[in-house]
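User: Predict the structure for this protein chain, please.
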Amino acid sequence: MRSTSLLAAVVAALLLWTGTAAADTRTEVQRELDAMVDAGVPGVVLTVRDGDRSWRAEAGVSDLDTGAPLPRNGRFRVASLTKPMVATVVLQLWHEGRLSPEDTLGELLPGLVPGAEGVSVEQLLHNTSGLADYVAAPEFADPADYVWRRFTPEDLVRTANELGHRTPGQWGYSNTNFVLLGMIIERVTGEDLADQLRERVFRPAGMHATELPRHPFLRGPHASGHYRIGSGPRVELTELDPSFAWAAYGVVATNEDLHRFWSALADGRLLPAALVERMRTDAVATGNPAWPRYGLGVEEMYTTCGVRLWGHTGAIPGYSTLSFGTADARRQVVVSSSLFSPTDGTQILHIVNTVNLEFCGEPWRPPPAQVAKPWCLGWPLP
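Assistant: Here is the predicted structure, written as structure tokens:
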């Protein structure tokens, strides 16, 4: 009886400590979100899944003019969270024998890119193709110059060609890679990329509020989007022509649908386990202290306590999103905000802090090897 009572007391104490620690973590997470709003982010929503439990935190408003609250399950332009979804379709086509990692651009899309015979599908997926990023072109420096232009995928690739390419093999983040993967999917299947994503990813995963839109609108509940370049003014931008983003960063989704995507990927609804594992293990070093490795359409996030997280970051004029979790997707964090400010390291650090707080109970800091030398915490944008 005494040993049973002692065990019960220990369990009760542990539960009390765990509850207190969780409450403290949530308080710190809320402070990070509030700090983002204080620094100019109009609104931000964080959602957490931890096994069968979930919780949500938010700061700011949906509309700066009316002060309307953030919608409960609002939609965001989740930008480069598009990349793991496109990668999933490519790996499905591998599994079906309709593509292979070694297939080259020269075979699949002949004449589109100089040196295409030396660039493989696998290199496109983990950004080692050497292809220039069309977003680095001067015409993409100011959103006001391009968000209402109509682009074809060929237009985007042509812009990248004009920048000049490097020799394949070295890692370099490039949205051009995923535009080309979108074109490959359409060439192999004979169907529109948006339809392929809907049938192969969104529906099987239960992502009913997710789409790759052709239209300029954010349908359903959503926060107004904004962007700020450097020290310039904050500009409202919710509607836009999404053709400049397309297969690289054009998807619209909710936080909950992003949770559903990672869960469906982990439990085998979208890909066999061996291919999901390959998305993570077939990875290359990036040199970024926060996101040190890039796999097949997925990023690894460094945490201070050694928990390995996989997911992706995303930013597009109007919105920024970060979504990371454990390999089994039992624990996940999604943070979506209504501000695109690519050079604002403070905003990025607050977002990364929320993830590290949830998994490690402390704010993020760079790896020890990075502390003694210059480093930059930046989005691998968009």
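Residues 26-365 form a domain with the Beta-lactamase fold (CATH 3.40.710.10).
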